[in-house]
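User: For my dataset I need records formatted as: sequence, then structure tokens, nothing else. Please produce one.
Assistant:
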Amino acid sequence: MKNKLQKLIVVLGPTASGKTELAIKLAKKFNGEIVNADSRAIYRDMKVGTDRPEKNEGGVRHHLVGFLLPDKDFNLAEYKQLAVGKINDILRRGKQPFLVGGTWLYISAITDNLEIPNVKPNKSWRKAQEKFQSETLYKKLQRLDLSAAERIHQNDKRRIIRALEVIHFSGQPISKQQKKGKPIFNVLKIGIKRDLDEVEKRVKKRIKIKMGDALIREIRRLLKKYSSNLPAMSSLGYPEMIKYIKGELSKEDAFFLLAKNTRRFARYQINTFRQDKNIKWVKNLQDASNKIKGFLKK
């Protein structure tokens, strides 16, 4: 059954591990296109903080990047529908799809064909929850559904609210409703092997070269149009710089906090990925290429 399914290559790893750079090189080598699996890269107007690629970055087509306004609702079921559609379209055109990102639930929704709870978003209920800090909401989720909480980072406000919403309106833990279905693709998962010290060095380099004052300018523009309480604004880089803009931290302390929080988030991602024994860990392009060649020959 598995060998009859069309092939999907996943490139995953912790934040700042070099997923996009590697995936672009691999996509060029294997006639591919990239489908985003990073929950932060979906937003428009948030290019600097998320470090998301452009739609044709590196000469490769990237799908599901920068298409959603920060104040718009978006859930896992919608992501899965869009991503599967893009993957199938790439396959129909005779190209190789690459699913690339670090959001485990997005990746799992495709590779495990997750059954998504049929609970419609409730705008008024969500708006009421957005007033609370991520930490408060996360503690509530831990009480109600510890299994779900363990799969969601404590700063991922949008996904925390969605999990609580499903629990509130269905009366059941979301973890018991997200079940694996029959595979829809034959999947190769490639993971970039980075230790936390490497990630931290790359983060500091990214902050120095790509972010800096550009991130502060981006956030000032966002705050003119959107509330700082929006789930999208809980993405790494935004809460730290908002504290600087509000005068609660110095610029130096804000960037130090960003590096610290990114390291913590990377640790969470690495621990999550390690639970999947099907991931093939690589250190470089050649290693990844060899694994893909073997996979495509089967």
